[in-house]
Write a structure and sequence with these properties.
mainly alpha
Length: 151
């Protein structure tokens, strides 16, 4: 059961919407942003009653692998550490593509996150493979870039 005032407001709103004049909602973007939308896939990766680490397991997996890579690099194994970091970022890109909800791993739109994580992961992995001494991959452009930056 609706009140009579609500029916009158609906009729008035319908008249304004039909002729395009009046106080109807504008289709323009607002000049001031009042809030931000969560990125797609930005929901929890586990149910809400699960503990916090379980809800954010994709982000924690990428962070743990990156931390292990940084530790390996600090312990004197730069190639292995950089490979771990690059593979962690590539895995983050794959998770962002395949999983419907990745928690805090979702920062921007799905496409932008995939491209960002993927390109950074591939770049770090390639630089680790051409690292001196005894590079595992011979790409002349990357070898000269590495020599130029290490001088």
């Amino acid at each position: 059961m609706r009140a009579e005032g609500a029916e009158e407001a609906d009729a008035a709103g319908a008249g304004e919407a039909e002729d395009g004049v009046g106080g109807g909602r504008s289709r323009r973007f607002p000049s001031i942003t009042r809030g931000t939308a969560r990125p797609e896939g930005g929901g929890r990766a586990a149910p809400g009653d699960a503990p916090a680490p379980a809800r954010q397991w994709p982000m924690l997996a990428v962070l743990a692998a990156t931390a292990a890579g940084l530790l390996a690099t600090a312990m004197g194994h730069p190639r292995g550490g950089c490979l771990m970091i690059g593979i962690a970022l590539i895995a983050g890109s794959v998770m962002r593509r395949l999983l419907p909800s990745v928690g805090m791993l979702a920062v921007r739109s799905r496409f932008t996150d995939m491209v960002t994580y993927g390109l950074l992961g591939v770049a770090i992995t390639l630089l680790a493979l051409v690292m001196e001494p005894r590079p595992l991959l011979h790409i002349p452009f990357l070898e000269s870039a590495v020599r130029f930056t290490v001088r």
